[in-house]
Amino acid sequence: MRQLLNTISIRQWRFVFGLALATAIITSVPYIYGYLSAPQNAVYTGIHHLAPGDTNAYLSMIEQVKQGHGVFLNLFTSEPQARVYTNPLYLIIGGLAKILSLPNLLALHLARVIGIFFFIPVAYLLISYLFSSEPKRRWTLVILLFSSGLGVFFNPFLFNINDIIHHPTDIWVAESITFLTLYHNPHLIASLTLIVLIFLLQLLAFESNKRSYSLWAGLACFFLVWFHPFNIVTVYAVLAVYLLVLFLWQRKIIWSHILNSLWLVLIPLPAFLYLYLMDRRDWVISIWNSQNVLPSPDIWMYVIGYGLLLILAGVGLWRVFRQPSPKWLFFVAWFFTSAMLLYIPLAFQRRLSEGLHFPIGVLAAAGVFYLFNRLRKKAETLSYGQMALAMVLLIFLPLSNIQILGQDIFLYDTYKSLPYYLPDGMNQAMIWLKSNTNLNDIIFSAFNTGNFIPAHTGRIVWIGHGPQTANLAEKQVISDWFWSDDSQAAQKYDLLKKNDITYVFWGEYEKGIGDYNPATKEYLQQVFSAGNFNIYKVK
User: Fold this and answer.
1) Which H or E run contains 100?
2) What is the domain extent for residue 247?
């Protein structure tokens, strides 16, 4: 590590942190625009089109910490549950928000920006481990951070709102593209940083046969398993395939590599045990895990999602196979292993796309460098061929990322209401719930309203989130039946009592479903009203 750091000059670090600052600013522009564009008497929610239902889940954990809870409840379902789940990352974010009196959304994005300043230097270290040339290091980092696929061109023809999964991955799967990861949320940035750090430390352990690197890599694995266990599959699979390929290539088993790798399994064992016992202890967490089904789209959606990068990576692979080395074999193993993991029989296939963009970006950079050298002429200036290649890269590689930013700015500019902005009445209703209820209360609402209540109040709802609401499909049918009309009063009152529901929220989403009118129900007492938003207490 010391030798590696000595190869990175102060000038290079200035470039790295300057690029981190630029990335933080660029990825923050839509959020800042959304906040500044909030209409009068409305509150910006921070919702954007990448996994919009999950933003409130992150905010709900921050809110719980601010209210004094270090061990979390799943606030998006009303069944009895134990306090056994904690997330170290959101525990830290919530703690800082509490100490500094930060709004939840600001704390979330402050953590995201800080994460960018950790990820980019770590990524540059791994890139520097591979490339000794400063220009190659810089350009590889730029390609990794800003490249995307061809989804911006194909999505207009493929878009189907009823089949949202099967779309080019570079316009909706935050894990699949580094820029989208840095744009989305802090825990994806943290997990990607740990993946890269683990690989760097383990490669150093293999090269130097120093156990200390493996111990640090094992500690990084411990935290990765604790707060984002999906990615440990990638770590173990990539390293296993790499060692197998390396042993076959060198025609011998390197036992020191195997012994160094054992620490990556032994040190995280307490985290694995914690997750297992938590799943066995609380059925709400167990069903949450079972409902967290994230299938991969068709392979062509990934091909489009990486687009030109895959062609350039193919050129890079050809160069690697002509002059293989242990370092390059690792990136080849990472690329092919991660690609195969996208379709293994696990419920969270799509999560395993996280990190795949890194080896694709590195191999694509190698392909670019090769093509530039082939197009080189004796003249010191760029040849026409090199200029044409540079223009193609500059124009096409970042286009989907630009479209993502532009799309969110368009949404904030066009739609001045839910889900992007809480109307004043709904915001006041949230304040009332936070001040006048407690965790023994259960709030009944439509699904969309229930997604916001935990984030803004720290209170439990009956329905409100895809994976986190237990028995979601059944509850969605019941919710639609409840709000659809104003009949069957006795049955609806029975539903509220059987589920220990204490408050009914009646607002724009509920009125949009049907004609249910709580004001006429004897079993409900109105306790709050502001604009189109009302709260009723169940008698």
Assistant:
1) helix 88-100
2) 2-36+103-409
My answer on whether 479 and 358 are in the same domain is: no
Cα–Cα distance for residue pair 47/51, rounded to 1 Å? 9
Average pLDDT, stretch 70-75?
Answer: 94
Question: CA-CA distance, 513 to 180, in Å (whole number)?
Answer: 33
Which of these three, 377, 409, 441, is where a domain ends?
409
Burial class for 278, CB neighbours closer than 10 Å (0-12, 13-18, 19+) = middle
Contact 16, 120 (CB under 8 A): yes
67 inside domain? no
Q: Which residues contact 287 (CB under 8 A, 6 or more apart)?
A: 470, 471
Q: In this structure, which amino acid lies at residue 11?
A: R
Residues 391, 443, single domain; the answer is: no
pLDDT attached to residue 131:
94
Q: Indicate if the alpha-carbon torsion angle 388, 393, 394, 399 is positive or negative.
A: positive
Nearest to 302 by CA among 403, 166, 161: 166
pTM for the structure as a whole: 0.95
CA atoms within a 13 Å half-sphere pointing along the CA-CB vector of 505: 33
- With respect to residue 159, please indicate whether it lies within any of the assigned structural domains: yes
Angle value at C-alpha 18, between 15 and 19, nearest 5 degrees = 85
SS3 534: strand
